[in-house]
Design a protein that fits this description.
2 copies of one chain form a homodimer.
Chain A lengths: L1 E6 L28 H7 L10 E6 L3 H8 L9 E4 L5 H15 L4 E6 L3 E3 L1 H15 L4 E6 L10 E7 L4 E7 L4 H9 L3 E11 H11 L1 H8 L7 H4 L8 H6 L5 E5 L3 E3 L4 H7 L8 E3 L2 E4 L2 E7 L4 E5 L2 E7 L3 E6 L6 H10 L10 E4 L2 E9 L2 E8 L7 E3 L3 E9 L1 E6 L2 E6 L3 E4 L5 E4 L6 E9 L8 E4 L5
Parallel strand pairs in A: 1-2, 1-4, 2-3, 6-10, 12-14, 13-15, 14-16
Antiparallel strand pairs in A: 4-9, 5-11, 6-9, 7-8, 7-9, 8-10, 16-17, 18-19, 19-20, 20-27, 21-28, 22-25, 22-27, 23-24, 23-26
């Protein structure tokens, strides 16, 4: 049977300030209302049954993944949690190990969760070819015909074309520009898409051969319960570097669809429609005599430019980036600076997600903080108590089930309730429609760590 | 006696998005906690007594001016209100007329309210020379020694130096760059600062000579009560164009202080300190490999740049401007676009000022709107009623005196009150300390025009 293994643990920082440590690229809605992860799952329709779709991610993303894939019918136990990110080879190996215990002939589609693909029909055709090729015990990779001399991708040098696939001569790391230009002219070169198709058993044999340390670790993992103990000792290594650059049995299937790894704002700019002056206005933008300006505005604010050229302007409620398009790769460097400065704009958005929904700090001043709280259907916060703050809640949409000092009441839109400091309380959304509450906190100390939890649905 | 006439009616749009139609440049705090208007008043200390300081402004700015100059002891009746802006000559003529009725020998210092001056000591020395010169019946102008070939200023070509002043040959409008370069090299040329000193009687004679229409209109104004009737019929004209370009009796006093009219973001950039790469970080800015970037951030948000050169980035809560420094003059053009698009970002800030204080819409959604209301000491809103909305008020600092359905109560920090729709109510700050209230509105229609006023301290 065919299984999908979606790698969704990445902490990409190149879309900062849109992406944050706690909200990485794969969970972002780049175009429309579907996140990259959701689009990855959606593309599998007709190829892999939902119960055979596995998602490997970091512990901290569990509730996000769960919420995002709920509607596709993927069981919760298919979300495999890594305590630490160890790059792609351990994640792929782990899934090969776990799935081969259920189905020793399993064929795995190993797919990144944060790439962008157009033409799903052709994607499926390509994958079907790859599956058939994997049946012949190849490690199969999807190669992309280069359209530019990109220095942001790894390359694959192909050999002879065989019946249904192309031999692979060599995996090559990201080249410099002059090499990339040569590769572009030479028809033997492909971009490495990071999509792999192989039998679990074949992949594990290759791991044994080329990454014996990892193989040993995987031998000790017989169920997900073993992961937390074994994982810290594993060396991080990519599939490309650890396996593909060494393996002899690799086959390439050329992609027949548009693909980008969305590796930077510049790559994102490529897929958006532009006006006559080459400007992208994604959000509320107004350009005067500007050219090649890519505005991505989610800050609820007007972004205007005068006489600006070849710039990415990415605006969010708490951070703005103005970046020369030629420097889009250096966003990473900026994020490192933020880390070093111990700021928080690289970690979380102003609207912070929680397993039960989200909250946004609208304003804070001396002695008060105003939050908008959104509680998802049927979710509840922990039973909790605050030492230093009182809370006024005004329900602005939906119905809140409120437990205060053991008493339960239902508070409707345009009604309010007061939780004095020191009182045990709990907030719940008993309905299917979302619940919105304005919370006005008052007190001398108003940080998130003033919380004593007595019960919690999310084991915090 | 010497009187000051401060012209504070301008609707400058060149500092958009910091300046707005309802909050023009003269009321802005450019550096520190003093607005340009306040700095203008402050500079007069020791030159003109507060009760002889007059401020001409537009009707709509009355409460703003009143609040800003309260601490200087300028009487309210010295705030002269124009129903419409008519440029500088009518405003200067009006004050000359009104003041000469009180003091026929009055000497007037006519001063813009939105310029920036360093070295107040030298400013005062220069003005004293000018006053003495005006005593000899000259129209006296303060000339600035050009430091750059600016095309943003009018020029004055001077003639022979006399005892204590320089003769003026010609007033020249803003030149093109090649002329400006010539002027810069030629010691006879000065920038026109827009500061004028003259006897009221002498100026009125010149108005009679060169602007007889205006003179006729001024003859019909015997008190401020006559302004509303006469003003609409007056032709707008500047002092420079209407009088100075024609008058024969002009004297120039060279300024011995740093002056700029702050005519654009670029002019503002000139007066701020820069780092080694020529960047200005006024607000929360983080630059990576950027040069000559001027960040002015009042948006409570991080502004970051990568590889950006010679750019002004001006950020406010509801509008961002990214502008090439060479194009700073074109901000006006952008503001015109906003007007044409019937937007509101050129008119008001997200925090809207009112005679009683200010309010900020923190968030709005379907059926609700969250405002932070700040009420100044001893001020109160109108006695009012809303058809479509209910209001929840949570006091977060200060004490509110609330009248609801005729009953008065005092609501303290961490207490709340509910005003159902249709109820007559009034909010007042009875104390000296400011009052802050979070207002959560709920209802189907939540616009500002759902208000029925029964009593109002501000005649609305």
């Amino acid at each position: 049977m065919t299984y999908a293994v979606i790698l969704a643990g990445g902490v990409g920082s190149r879309f900062w300030p849109f992406s944050r440590e706690l909200e990485p690229k794969q969970f972002m809605k780049i175009i429309g209302e579907t996140s990259l992860l959701q689009a990855t799952v959606q593309r599998l329709k007709g190829l892999v049954e939902p119960r055979r779709v596995y998602i490997v991610t970091n512990n901290i993303y569990f509730y996000e993944v769960k919420a995002q894939v709920a509607k596709f019918g993927i069981p919760d136990e298919n979300i495999i949690l890594e305590p630490q990110g160890k790059n792609t080879a351990p994640a792929a190996g782990l899934c090969a190990k776990l799935i081969s215990r259920i189905d020793k002939d399993a064929v795995l589609l190993v797919l990144p969760s944060d790439h962008y693909i157009k033409n799903t029909g052709n994607f499926k055709k390509t994958i079907k070819k790859a599956i058939s090729c994997a049946g012949k015990d190849f490690l199969v990779t999807i190669g992309i015909k280069p359209s530019t001399a990109s220095t942001g991708y790894g390359y694959i040098k192909s050999g002879a074309g065989k019946g249904g696939y192309i031999e692979v001569e060599k995996f090559l790391e990201k080249p410099d520009l002059s090499k990339a230009k040569k590769y572009l002219k030479d028809k033997r070169f492909f971009w490495n898409s990071g999509m792999f198709i192989w039998k679990a058993s074949v992949f594990l044999e290759e791991v044994e051969k080329y990454l014996p340390g990892l193989y040993d670790s995987l031998r000790s993992i017989n169920s997900v319960n073993d992961i937390p103990e074994i994982w810290p000792g594993i060396e991080p290594v990519s599939v490309d570097y650890g396996i593909m650059e060494h393996s002899k049995g690799i086959a390439l299937i050329p992609a027949d669809f548009y693909w980008t790894d969305l590796g930077s704002w510049e790559a994102l700019a490529e897929i958006f429609p532009k006006d006559k002056k080459g400007n992208i206005s994604n959000g509320d933008a107004l350009n005067v005599d500007s050219h090649g300006v890519c505005v991505f505005a989610r800050g609820n604010r007007l972004v205007s430019t005068i006489g600006v050229n070849n710039m990415v302007i990415a605006d969010t409620p708490d951070a703005l980036l103005v970046c020369d398009r030629g420097r889009a790769q250096d966003v990473k460097q900026l994020v490192e600076r933020l880390k070093a400065l111990k700021r928080k704009e690289h970690q979380v958005h102003l609207t912070e997600r929680r397993p039960w929904g989200s909250f946004t700090v609208l304003q804070q001043g001396i002695g008060f903080k105003i939050k908008l709280i959104e509680l998802a259907s049927k979710k509840r916060l922990s039973l909790q108590r605050h030492k230093s703050r009182a809370e006024h809640w005004v329900v602005v949409s939906g119905v809140a089930k409120i437990t205060s000092d053991g008493k339960v009441s239902f508070v409707r839109s345009n009604e309010s309730v007061y939780i004095p400091k020191g009182r045990k309380h709990r907030l719940e959304n008993p309905l299917r429609s979302p619940l919105k509450i304005v919370e006005v906190q008052t007190g001398a100390y108003l940080e998130e760590d003033d919380i004593e939890r007595f019960e919690d649905d999310f084991k915090r």
